[in-house]
Amino acid sequence: MHSPDSRRLFLQRLASLIAVPLVAPACSRSQPPEGDGRASSASPPGSAPAATAAQNAPAAKVKLALNWVPEPEFGGFYAARESGAFAKEGLDVEILGGGAGVPVVQMVAGGQVDFGISGADEVLTARARGADVLPLFAVFQTSPQAIMTHESRGVKSIADILKSGTLAIEPGLPYAAYLKKKYGFNKVKVVPYDGGVARFVADKDYSQQCFITAEPIAAKRKGSDPATFLVATEGFNPYVAVVITRAALWKENPERARAFVRATREGWRTYLQDPARANEIMAKLNTSMDAETFVAAAEAQRPLIETQETKEKGLGVMTRERWETLATQLVDLGVLEKAPPIDDVLVALR
């Protein structure tokens, strides 16, 4: 979603987990810019006048911690702020840009921030270790994690990719462990993922992990022929860009959490309809990504966020079945010794 030199594994920011960290993803990330680009500390320019008691009352100041720098995967949050959706719900939201190793889960569990962005697998791992976090809203219904190869190879699936050539991947991460268990890596040469696309562009037998909203865009702009295959189609599909809060906040002030979710949903509707304004704000904060890439990434992620299920049930929807499946998979892969009780994890979704 940004330049290949600052690409990351968004899905598994395992360094941010509670207690003893798991293997952290290899990446080449730039540090996040200062500030959050807000036009004002309360209502953004052009926001609707207050019409409810919540709007007339002083706005509640809350903090949202991102797990990476401002870019399209977070567009709906900036849109919620810029459009006045947060202000309408009586919230003054400070958005904190993330970066390599930023411990979002710890920050939320410890009360340093009110809300944060995490992956569903991180949430379950953190809960299993006793972290006081709950999921509220899932931006990505389909994980953007994928394997990228060259179209010239003529492969039809990830299974085909793993039959020959070189694969750059972080083998310790859950989705990689899932693929290894399903297909085996004995026929492909596995090398470390270096966070860029230079080796991919230079070697027609080279494949690599990617987000379909990032590396393929960079590779195409360098004249390469990327073909991508989602890991989700293989059966491993955790929610991505999950809004989390601490259980204590939910217990003490559930309406604040609900208000945040309502505003977030409205913000994502706004961003999906027209990402231009939020992209403009984020571009000032993340100068490593150019305007063309912002546009391309926003378009590429749309079908992963807006699905038939979200059209029926609303953006950000999460189901018990998806969480149960993921918990079972993480235990099966050895990521978790025992899954946390799902009912305890999904308290805010009842």
Could you spell the SSE succession in H and E letters?
HEHHEHEHEEHEHEHEHEEHHHHHHH
The termini sit apart by: 34 Å
Strand percentage: 15-25%
How many whole angstroms does the radius of gyration measure?
A: 20 Å
Helix content: 25-40%
Low-confidence stretches: 1-34, 39-54
What do these coordinates show?
There is one protein chain. With 350 residues, the chain is α/β, with parallel strands linked by helices. Helix content is 37%, strand content 15%. It is built from 16 helices and 10 strands. It has helices at 53-56, 75-82, 85-88, 104-109, 120-128, 158-161, 174-183, 198-202, 215-221, 247-252, 254-273, 276-285, 291-305, 308-313, 320-332, 342-345, and strands at residues 60-65, 91-96, 115-118, 133-140, 145-150, 166-168, 189-191, 206-211, 226-230, 240-246. Strand 6, helix 7 (174-183) and strand 7 (189-191) form a beta-alpha-beta unit. Helix 2 (75-82) packs across helix 11 (254-273) and helix 2 packs across helix 12 (276-285). The chain is globular, with a radius of gyration of 20 Å. The protein starts with 52 loop residues before the first helix and ends in a 5-residue tail after the last helix.
Core attributes:
disordered N terminus; 350 residues; 37% helix; five-stranded mixed beta sheet; 16 helices
How are the SSEs ordered, and which strands pair?
Layout: H1 53-56, E1 60-65, H2 75-82, H3 85-88, E2 91-96, H4 104-109, E3 115-118, H5 120-128, E4 133-140, E5 145-150, H6 158-161, E6 166-168, H7 174-183, E7 189-191, H8 198-202, E8 206-211, H9 215-221, E9 226-230, E10 240-246, H10 247-252, H11 254-273, H12 276-285, H13 291-305, H14 308-313, H15 320-332, H16 342-345
Parallel strand pairs: 1-2, 1-3, 6-7, 6-8
Antiparallel strand pairs: 3-10, 4-10, 5-8, 5-9
Helix pairs in contact: 2-11, 2-12
